[in-house]
Amino acid sequence: MDRNIGKKVLLAGLLILLILFTAACSNSDSDAGSTDKENDPKKAKNNELTITFRSGGSTNQGLINWLNDMVIPKFNEENPEVNVQLSPLEVSEGDYFAKVALLLQSEDTAPDIVTEDTFMVNSDASAGYLEALDDRIESWDGWDKVTDTVKKGVIAEDGNIYGVPYNTDTRGLWYNKELLADAGVSVPWEPKNWDDIINAAKAVKETFGDDVVPMWMNSGKATGEATSMQTFEMLLYGTDDPLYDYEEEKWIVKSDGLVDAFKFIDTIYEEGLGPNLSQVLNGQGSSIAYQQLMPEGKLAIGLDGMWQTGNWHENGSAPWPEFEDKLGFAAMPTQDGNDPGTTSMSGGWALSIPAKSDNKDLAWEFIKMASTPEMNLELQLNDRNISPYKEVAENPKYQELPFFEEATSFLENTNFRPAVDKYPNVSTVIQSLVEQVVTDAISPEEAAEQYKVQVTEIVGADKIMEK
Amino acid sequence: MNTASRAITLRSIFFLLPSWILLLIFFIGPILLTFYFSFTDLALTGAQAQQMAFVGFDNFIEMFQDPNFRISVTKTILFLFISAIIGQQVLGFLLAYLMKEKNTTFRRIIGIVVIAGWVTPEIVVAFCWVAFLNDSGTLNAILQSFGLETITWLYTFPLISVCVANIWHGTAFSMLVFQASLDDVPKTIEEAAMIDGASKLQILIRIILPTVKGSIVTNMILVTLQTLGVFTLIYAMTGGGPGTSTQTLPIFMYNQAFVNYQLGYGTAISLVLLLIGVIASLFYIRSMKVQI
Amino acid sequence: MNRFKLEKKLSYIVLTFIGFLFILPLLWVILASIDANAKQALTIPSEFTLDNFTAILSDPATIRSFIIGLFISLGQSILVVAVGGLAAYPLSRYALKYKKPFMLTILFMTSLPITAVMVPVYQLFMFLNLQDSLVATTLFLTASGLPYGIWMLKNFMDAVPLELEESAWVDGASIWTCLRKVVAPLMIPGICTVGIFTFSMSWGNFFVPYILIQSPDKFPASVTIYQFFGTYGMVEYGKLAAFSLVYTMPAVILYLFSQKFMSQGFSFGGATKG
């Protein structure tokens, strides 16, 4: 008798308390950070606007300067009561997208504007994290000014638009003219195939020994998408085998190109032509390479994006007045010089509004203000990326920027990442395999083999093909 | 049914309630969810983030075919074995044993030095060791001063590096446990054996070890479980790399769930991690012959 | 006799050597924190300075992250002791019907690496809409420390003689007064052991807050320190070392404070002598 009552009391009590407790907990969010209530961006009254992007070290310094110096002051002129808060995430590139996905899942944490790499737009849109902007764009005259090819990057598979692009880019080979010349490579350097690159790197190694890093490519998991795109895909798209076959709508999981791309990476490190692993596998590898080594004349060739010039101009994070004379920017050759002879990859970033933002109208006003050719020109003058606006591309101020002629010319033979669901997952597989090849954990052939297994697992056996 | 015993029952319930509510929500809750989500394809982004589906045993089939899973299990076992079972236990015992009957000041100094590694927060431990082992870090500076070549420790010997860091961080715990239990070894027996002409080693094996056996087993299990869950240290030191060379199960789980966006798969790995804990736990309970 | 002397000398040498090895990694942090030009390698500072500490301690963001860290870890420790102590009382004092399975479950849970399986925990937080809540994170950590806490505290409580309590009852003290005035003071070693153990496990934990807390301005110190690793390209080693030292202090203070009670705690409250 006693026991039964005890049990019932226990059960009932537990249930009630469980409910009360959960309820109390859910509401406790607001007083959780009582120490920092005022600064808490999520408790936005309607006059707060938060913007999330990646920072840390000097990442996105150009974007930050532009927001602080240009866009926010102008925005505040028209909306003086609005407090625009920058809420940067200080994480490595590899962790940024996951952290953004975590942020966008709830109303409490979602910012009002987020910078999205265009390869994540499709994925985050189908997860329901982003707001479709079609209705807003319809009544906005700015959209027509955006280049059509760049628009594709922000249109998801459902056909809706999920962001306004603020830049696009190309990639190529940065090289130090003096170092290459001293090593006996003729300058301006125009490598015709992959062997030319390796031979140039070898020449540098013979001439300078350990004082100079011959060739730098992002090669680790910590550099995230940069490893997939700036390194692996720049190689792969120079072979005859891309990642994805659009006609068949299938992923190519076995091809000579895959093996050869891994082999090229392997060769660089096997022959001692790459940097120390402790530098290149670091999340800040890119800063080490382009803010330290290259300006110091300790890096001969670097396969990377044109935005690296943003480091070196007078407002950059590593000003280097002579960079224009010291460096060259060569197009990445295809594997054997096969048609069209050179290759590049293009991506870009966009401003998007999270579906769970509590201030969408204001966010849209902000994006509209930031997304004009005039504003975008200011961004590119700071950040040094390719503008998504035709008007900007024709502006002399923009055209005169160092290396923009080269960078823009790479657009001719450029490639885009597969705009299909699952690309982000495939990309992390690539990053992990590249790092394993670089550290000699597996051979290039094994990497290609594992690529097949892991990608099949991700996209499903009905969506793969072999070549 | 007297009122006194009813009062006791009610009071007991009242006293136990807060802890059971907490355990139910935040301990048993996640465990139940582990079973639930490990049979789904829930993702962090993409369509499956919105509409997950039940996929049966797919995650587990994938796991057992995944070479990285096998690597992770191996790395976890190696990490456990080298850093916990061998490293912390043996070194901890050695320290406790050697410190017996030493000069108090000396004993205290060594004790503080070892315990300093223990009270240092895990993330700081990681940082200390990254700095210590780096290309131009202290260890290489020492090697150079002896005219030896420098070694990129974190890239040449990554697993050993994280093991050593974990030993540095954890040994004090074992040392304190063994100090407490060595105090329980009756001095008279030891002295008697010494008079009979037994060597130190014989005394250690025949008398001391059997007496502290209980502590060894308990400590081993506790240390095993603490080591099984190590994430911060490895993540901050090597991120599980280079390649997969320090990718233990917690790191593998993190990578699958939060880097490769496959939450369902990550949960399935969690389940394996929990199962290892369950096995250790059963062993623990048996070996302790618990008196309740 | 000579043999014993040699042995004794040898063990002193071995101990000194081990001690030296243990201090090496720390030495750098200490020296670098007061070095104006700290580098990665261990050097005697050419120029002593406290600038690194001033820079760290005058940064409101750093202070905030420390306060948040303390809120989480101290909150957790206090809750584990309070809630665990409450649960330990009836388990220690009364002959309850389901005590045995109860205690076995507790013991069983002690061994589950719950703070390592953050994926389902994160999903639970999503489900209950608790993500980004510092209170909920503290409660989760409390639950993770509870099994061990209850187990230890019950063992310690067993060692407190019932007679003392009975005489207090005779004097008309309520059960609450009894717990506070009679039982708790006698259990200080146990409370300290459980408290510091809980604290030190969570104080350096990066994983749990990194997954459960999303807003950068709610990150505790264990997460904000990671920014120094990230900006590796141009690290200010002095500041980083100073940050590490300041960050280690609470654990050291707590340890020193409770040190004299600890040795009793490490015989697992007699649990190992079964």
From TrEMBL, chain A:
Query: Which PROSITE patterns does the protein's record reference?
Result: PROKAR_LIPOPROTEIN
**Biased-composition ranges for Basic and acidic residues?**
34-46
Q: Which SUPFAM superfamilies match?
A: Periplasmic binding protein-like II
Record InterPro entries: Bact_solute-bd_prot1, SBP
Where is the region Disordered?
Answer: 30-53
Q: Sorted alphabetically, which keywords does the UniProt record give?
A: Signal
Q: Pfam families given for it? A: SBP_bac_1
- Per the UniProt entry, the signal peptide is 1-24
Highest taxon, organism lineage:
Bacteria
- The name on file for this protein is ABC transporter substrate-binding protein
Q: Which organism is it from?
A: Gracilibacillus dipsosauri
Automatic annotation (TrEMBL), chain B:
Is Transmembrane included in the keywords of this UniProt record? yes
CDD domains documented for this protein: TM_PBP2 (cd06261)
Name its GO BP terms in alphabetical order: transmembrane transport
Which SUPFAM superfamilies would you find in this protein's record?
A: MetI-like
| Keywords per UniProt | Cell membrane, Membrane, Transmembrane, Transmembrane helix, Transport
Per UniProt, subcellular location reads as: Cell membrane
**Keyword Ribosomal protein part of the UniProt annotation:** no
Which residue spans traverse the membrane? 12-37, 77-97, 109-132, 152-178, 216-237, 263-285
User: Which GO cellular component does the record give, naming just one?
Assistant: plasma membrane
List the protein's name: Amino acid ABC transporter permease
Q: Which organism does this sequence originate in? A: Gracilibacillus dipsosauri
From TrEMBL, chain C:
The residue ranges crossing the membrane are: 12-34, 66-89, 101-122, 134-153, 186-213, 237-257
**What membrane topology does the UniProt entry give?**
Multi-pass membrane protein
ABC transmembrane type-1 domain residues are: 66-258
The UniProt entry lists the main location of this chain as membrane
Tell me the superkingdom of the source: Bacteria
Keyword Cell membrane on this protein?
yes
Q: Name one GO cellular component term.
A: plasma membrane
One Pfam family assigned to this protein is BPD_transp_1
> Which InterPro entries does the UniProt record give?
BP-dep_ABC_trans_perm (IPR050901), MetI-like (IPR000515), MetI-like_sf (IPR035906)
Q: What subcellular compartments does it reside in?
A: Cell membrane
Q: For this chain's UniProt record, which GO biological process terms are given?
A: transmembrane transport
Q: Which UniProt keywords apply?
A: Cell membrane, Membrane, Transmembrane, Transmembrane helix, Transport
Q: Which family does it belong to?
A: Belongs to the binding-protein-dependent transport system permease family.
This chain belongs to the protein called Carbohydrate ABC transporter permease
Q: Which organism is it from?
A: Gracilibacillus dipsosauri
